[in-house]
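Batch job 17 of 40 flagged for manual review because the log was empty.
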Amino acid sequence: MKVQLLQIDDWGLEPLKPAHRNDLMEIMDDRHGQTSTLVISQLPTDQWYASIGDNTLADAILDRLMHNAHRLPLKGESMRKLLGQLTEDEHLG
């Protein structure tokens, strides 16, 4: 079963390992032109290629991911920072 919207959060926090690159390639290939993928990242898109690691797979993955993509660059402070600390009711345990 395909998920209509796949969300990948915190993309690029660390470089992909070989097995993860292969898995991501299969996922992007399967989803390309069929369903939507949302990527959230603080890593600039011009650094995604290096984060994937393997040149051939990076080309293939990013071609499928970025083709017909809509970019929404956001600026400003982190919402966590703006909202400040947790209230007493929100603290764990």
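Reviewer: the log was empty due to a logging misconfiguration, but the result itself is present. The two ends are 38 Å apart (CA to CA). Unflagging and moving on to job 18.
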